[in-house]
Amino acid sequence: MIIGVPKEIKDHEYRVALTPRGAARLVHEGHRVLVQSSAGASSGFADREYQAAGAVLLDTPAQLFAQAQLVVKVKEPLGPELDLLRPGLTLFTYLHLAAAPEAAHALLKHKVTGIAYETVELPGGDLPLLTPMSEVAGRLAVQIGAHYLEKAQGGAGVLLGGVPGVLPGRVVVLGAGTVGSHAAAVALGMGATVTLINRGVASLRRLSQVLHGSLETLVATPEAIGPAVKSADLVVGAVLVPGCRAPVLVTRQMVKAMRPGSVIVDVSVDQGGCVETARPTSHSNPVYVAEGVIHYCVPNMPGAVPRTSTQALCNATLPYIANMARYGVAESLRWDPALAKGLNTWDGSLTHRMAAEALGLPAISLEQALSDRA
């Protein structure tokens, strides 16, 4: 199979979808790997490393998309990339179609097979390709929030860990999944008082047993969220409904009640955000102030630490890439139910029900899609 790795064009997106080590494995297994020049440079991987691995360097994304059968990326296709899509192409990347209607319509128009990292799901419900980036984003969220709480950044001047004789800062984390648990762990490690809010009690019970420090847990209701947010120095939005728009848990009125100079980091903004006042920002212009509160809402947060993120992502995706290259995309989807759940678009149709509902479009069943190629 011919596998293409383009350079990411999203604002300050420094990750790359395949490391030289990953390229070497695919080449060793008999596949042709095309890498756009300087695609890995910002992650610390030089072109010469890809060449040493046996990959072929191409100058333009147009050359790469025209030749590749399987294109592996980090983020959804944007702008000029949309015109490079074509029938017969398989795209394997983070899609988040519920929040990216332009990309969704382009994938459907060009009859691209779109497989989303974030909806690949194991039988127990784990999301193996979303987890590593969620771990990075959760850890970064508190680090970033602490930075913007500094007075020089416009914040309230609060040190999350406090000092002897001074109360520590208060951190509210909405969601007890991978992002939320890692955010809570980092905040507790810094010495903050943490309130972890989640819809289900089971995750709260588990985390209360493994996390150490000043941890409070609450079941997610408006009556619980409002007072917690009001007293918070930092709110981390970590809500995920796979393939669907994130529910809004923090209203504008709740934000308005927060102390000026407090900070919100809404990690779920790539799925629309769980804070009513959240809107996507970028690494080049990451924050804005709404209702007196600093908002950090960068959809591709892990791109800020690309060396770590790229290696973590490739560790997770490479087995799936290798199987699709070895057995073909359609056959891999048939025998691997986890990968099959990642299928979002197929031959001009949506195959992910929640994404379709969010976009207001019809969807066909996975079984119907796969039977079309039987």
A few lines on this structure:
With 374 residues, the protein is α/β, with parallel strands linked by helices. It has helices at 20-28, 47-52, 61-67, 101-109, 131-148, 178-189, 201-210, 222-230, 252-256, 306-327, 329-335, 337-341, 353-359, 366-371; strands at 2-5, 32-36, 56-58, 70-72, 90-93, 113-116, 170-174, 193-198, 215-219, 234-237, 263-266, 287-290, 293-296, 343-346, 349-350. Strand 8, helix 7 (201-210) and strand 9 (215-219) form a beta-alpha-beta unit.
Overall 3D geometry?
globular
The radius of gyration computed from the alpha-carbon positions, rounded to a whole number of angstroms, is 21 Å
Largest sheet: 8 strands, mixed
Main sheet strand line-up: 3-2-1-4-5-6-14-15
Give the number of DSSP strands: 15
What's the domain count? 2
How far from one another are the termini? Answer: 20 Å
CATH superfamily descriptor of the largest domain: NAD(P)-binding Rossmann-like Domain
Top-tier CATH class of the largest domain? Alpha Beta
Q: Secondary-structure element order, as H and E?
A: EHEHEHEEHEHEHEHEHEHEEEHHHEEHH
Contiguous runs where pLDDT drops below 50 for at least 5 residues: none
Structural class: alpha/beta
| Strand content bin | 15-25%
